[in-house]
Amino acid sequence: MESQLKDMRGDGPNVLDKDPGATIAGGVHDTYGEDAATVERIVTPWARTVASGVELLRDPRYNKGLGFTLAERDHHYLRGLLPPVHFSQELQEERILEDLRSYPDQLQKYVALMELQERNERLFYKVLIDHVEEMLPFVYTPTVGEACQKYGLIYRRPRGLYISLNEKGKILDVLRNWPEHNVHVIVVTDGERILGLGDLGIQGMGIPVGKLALYTALGGLRPSLCLPVVIDVGTNNKDLLNDRFYIGLKRERATGEEYDSLIDEFMSAVKQEYGERVLVQFEDFANQNAFRLLAKYSTTHLVFNDDIQGTAAVVLGGLIAAVNITGTKISDQTYLFAGAGEAGSGIAEIIAMHISKESNVELEEARKKIWMVDSKGLLESSRLGSLQEYKKRYAHEHESCPDFPAAVKQLKPTVLIGTTSKKGMFSKEILEEVASFTERPIVLALSNPTSKSECTAEEALKYTQGRALFASGSPFSPVEMNGKTFTPGQANNAYIFPGMGLGCIIAGAIRVQDEMFLEAARALAHQVSKEDSERGLIYPSFTHIRKISAHIAAAVAAKAYELGLATRIPRPTDLLSYAQSCMYSPSYRKYR
Ligand SMILES: NC(=O)C1=CN([C@@H]2O[C@H](COP(=O)(O)OP(=O)(O)OC[C@H]3O[C@@H](n4cnc5c(N)ncnc54)[C@H](OP(=O)(O)O)[C@@H]3O)[C@@H](O)[C@H]2O)C=CC1
Ligand SMILES: CC(=O)C(=O)O
Ligand SMILES: [Mg+2]
Fold this sequence. Notes:
The protein has 592 residues and is α/β, with parallel strands linked by helices. It folds into 3 domains: 1-43, no CATH class; 88-300, Malic enzyme, N-terminal domain (Rossmann fold); 314-493, NAD(P)-binding Rossmann-like Domain (Rossmann fold, 3-Layer(aba) Sandwich). The protein contains 26 helices and 16 strands. Helix 15 packs parallel to helix 23 (514-526). NADPH dihydro-nicotinamide-adenine-dinucleotide phosphate binds next to helix 15, helix 16 and strand 9. InterPro entries: Aminoacid_DH-like_N_sf, Malic_enzyme_CS, Malic_N_dom, Malic_N_dom_sf, Malic_NAD-bd, Malic_OxRdtase, NAD(P)-bd_dom_sf.
């Protein structure tokens, strides 16, 4: 028992290591697939060796750099390969921070952090975990957006798996080239809608890499359990096609059967190689594929779409916290969305689900509180014939209305939600208008990166005389207003997906259902403290993200058990402590 607890604390091998993985008859563990191999079935030969000397210094999982003690240097043939001093991990961390802070440019910080991840994984995660608020903008939005745009140029070492059309028919073998065989979470993109920056083809790889770093730092999943994947089906981005440093396939995007069959092969291979309980997070697909793929695989795989569902949960969590501040109800608000794509539709639907449960009304009825504008104007019934399926539910009876400013005038919303990737969409006039008929307008400018935000924090506060409850997808610096400092919140799915992933894993969930996102949203809202509310904040600080993720994980896992989707039996009695005990610690391990 003690040793089990020790393992769970992270002093020994992590409990998630003990996942049975693939088993063959009789329950024999066949983690690497060799026993199940037949003459026909190809396996990758691999060997686990004890690293020492230079090899140890070059292995980011085990390297401690100057953190190797003198005894460790003796035992592992490192004498003379390092300068003579020994630094504690804390001193190494301070050195890294000082170095990072000296770079004037955000992209330089990104590159330096990625290099640290390649060199000394534990130190990288220690820096990220201990300084999450400061580091998040570099490993994640907005800097990751710039990194993706320049990925070909800043490319140093490959990270994650690149699966292109060239790998058609061989994807299972490609998965077996990956050095880890115990994979629990995959974040996959095809690079077609990278943040609000459009089609970046294979360079979208920065997103799965960044999101999975957050799975570890924010959600406590061990790095080796995480696999970033980019599916390269070409790109329609002319600049990239003409760029001699572009690292992907130089062809137009595959569509139709060619596209679908590659994705299908990937999804089958993933299940075959890692089993039923590997979580696949779809990220930054363009909406014509995102909705389809989610519908197609959600009944056969453990999948979710972060842009549709993760974003929905983070917004609902913020809205619950916002109405707690205003003393109103979610169902009291009138919602107007600028943008009716993946993020917009996902958010609208979870709000409607919440209202339906809260007010005990039919979903149809609940949807009527929500109005959406797309690039062609207000969704309303005269457009039903030409709308995509996911928009039809919000095409209510109303006269036609050409654009967002006109819709604001006609509908008098109390909540504005922006998912257009269009800077300036929440203009001075619109913010003033909303502030004229609502005491505390809720303004969520969700588009990423910062350059695409519908408005800035300063604009939202200035044009509403400091009354707006504001949050944005990418972070904004604090704003001074009437002698007070307001630190804007970040409405980003990074609050949700790490806890969602951890919750699925600790429960051994086999499917993700919308109710799990509803629970995640409520758990997030619960983490907003009284002090946060008093300061007009609708999200808790990212500084507490590991605690937040543990609460989300426990809520998600509890729902998975309730829905009969959990396979880890018996159910841990205290899911919260169990979630916390499973979290990866970046502290160095002592070597013999
Ligand atoms: N903060 C967060 O956690 C998240 C933020 N996002 C951000 O949200 C943004 C959108 O993502 P996503 O929903 O996936 O993208 P989509 O492409 O699916 O949706 C964009 C929507 O904006 C609409 N639109 C474009 N121009 C206008 C306009 N002038 N007026 C009104 N509507 C307009 C589009 O209309 P039409 O349908 O007619 O083309 C479409 O409905 C991105 O910037 C992304 O980074 C996404 C996920 C999470
Ligand atoms: C945050 C995120 O997932 C996006 O902007 O796409
Ligand atoms: Mg995304």
